[in-house]
Amino acid sequence: MHKEHALIAIPTTGLMQETRDFEITCTAGDFNDPEIEAAGFSGPIRVKVTAERGGSEIALLIETVAGCDFACDICLAPIHRELNGSYRVFFDCSDSGVQATPDADDDEYRILDSNATEIDLTEDVRETLLLSVPMKVTCVGNPDCRLYSGAKEELDIQEPEGSGSSWKDSLAKLKKKYR
Ligand SMILES: [Zn+2]
After folding, report:
1. Whole-angstrom distance between the N-terminal and C-terminal Cα of the chain?
2. How far apart are the CA of 69 and the centre of ligand 1, in A?
3. pLDDT tens across 46-92, in order?
4. How far is residue 21's CA from residue 15's CA, in Å, rounded to a whole number?
5. Residue 75 CB-density burial (10 A; 0-12 exposed, 13-18 middle, 19+ buried)
6. pLDDT computed for residue 7 by the predictor
7. Distance from Cα 141 to the centre of ligand 1, integer Å
8. What secondary structure does DSSP assign to 31-45, as a single string?
């Protein structure tokens, strides 16, 4: 995967101070990634990177704010949510020629190349966005989402796609059996 220009990158020269913030705005389409599109991201994505330097280590905190379009899991009504994601990455910039210890190849702990002029965070931001997507999205306070408010009748509800509800079906069958 070679890219001529990193979509989201911070200059390493900005990391010499103790703490520094970087703000980057892009759009969901900039990622040109089917996973981002499939997740429902739309419109602008705001990325804030806080770089904190402590000794020979730099801690980056990546925070994302992005709009995402969902369908309610229960009534399928369209829902727009603003998602907040955060992710931490650590860089070793000791620049002492000491090689990384074998167990330091952790995804979140990296060696900062002393020749690098910038750190490409595109992939990290992409991950942060995908991690910020909730597993389930349902209407909140929507009177039209009748099934949601009728939680007591949940067992009688037919799932629209019948996915992942086998335990519910079993429970419903049991209920009928002992009625
Ligand atoms: Zn709903």
Report:
1. 60
2. 13
3. 999 999 988 888 899 999 999 999 999 888 889 999 999 999 999 88
4. 10
5. middle
6. 93
7. 9
8. G--HHHHHHTEEEEE
